[in-house]
Amino acid sequence: MKILANDGIPVEVKKVLEQKGYEVIEVRVAHEQLVNYTQKNAIEGLLIQKGTLLNKSMINELSHLSVVIFAGTSIELELMDYITSKGIQVIWAEEALANATAEMVFAHLFSGCRLLQESNRNMPLEGDISFKSLQESYSTGLELAGKTLGIIGMNKAGELVAQKALALGMNVLYHDSNVLSLKADYLLPNGISFRVDLDSSPIDKVLHDAHFLTVHTRHFERYIIGKEELESAHHLIGIINCAYPEAINEVALVDRVNEERILFAGIDRFEEEPNPAIQVLMQPAFSLSPNINTSTDESKVLIWEEIIEKMQLLRN
């Protein structure tokens, strides 16, 4: 199988794939020439990281491909689902990126509960003259232990979010119509074994009971949390989106926070990427990050290990 590594590929990874029988072509093809090049050179697989810009119209013209391999840290579920719908296999390093995403969820949860997103903005401006006042303002934080985390969807990152939440003493509810139970033993990096035993709950119960919500569906679903869902979340304190753009209706979310019915939101994926709405960026109750939930030094190494493993399975 001919694989076009359009954004480059580590030398050692290329060597391994070639040893497994792949012909890896490392050429940088311009966006507007990609369809013609892959057709002319009988390319069956396209390996991309972050430099190649794919869209739906281009995918329609790449039907001759057998597989698209996403080897970067920026994951676009909507595009991946569309590629799959066209009969093209998608390979990506879901497990390699899962822990980075799960830890980012908790980075936002901790920040929001302790009001760090606001404190970090105001301390450089007023800390030297209003220390006591700021201390009083930000001394009303909350603890995660004993609270209920609701997980919408249960992908690999969702599993690790559940594991970490339980380890912190949180109650965990999740809803996923395709994953009716989660029963697994996790071996942590420090050698400790951790058991997770959960069953999927109705979405209404998750929304009603959760103090915090986070989205981890396996496929793109626009506005899986919208105005109605937010109105049903009677105990909601904070909400996190490290999943994909448009997972949460940001207009409804901003309204909810402005009405002081939600304490905070942690947003890593934005509706209008790469130009997030100004009302989202300027909302002091929002903890913000620029689509970096999957991107760590560790995940960038693990990606290639998982890609190689999955390419071997494809070969078989």
UniProtKB/TrEMBL annotation:
Domain D-isomer specific 2-hydroxyacid dehydrogenase NAD-binding residue range list: 107-290
Coiled-coil segments: none
Classification via InterPro entries: D-2-hydroxyacid_DH (IPR050857), D-isomer_2_OHA_DH_cat_dom (IPR006139), D-isomer_DH_NAD-bd (IPR006140), NAD(P)-bd_dom_sf (IPR036291)
Domain D-isomer specific 2-hydroxyacid dehydrogenase catalytic span(s) in chain numbering: 11-310
Record keywords, A-Z: NAD, Oxidoreductase
GO molecular function, one term: oxidoreductase activity, acting on the CH-OH group of donors, NAD or NADP as acceptor
PANTHER family assigned to the protein according to its UniProt record, in alphabetical order: D-ISOMER SPECIFIC 2-HYDROXYACID DEHYDROGENASE FAMILY PROTEIN (AFU_ORTHOLOGUE AFUA_6G10090)
Family: Belongs to the D-isomer specific 2-hydroxyacid dehydrogenase family.
This protein's name: 3-phosphoglycerate dehydrogenase
Organism encoding this protein: Myroides pelagicus
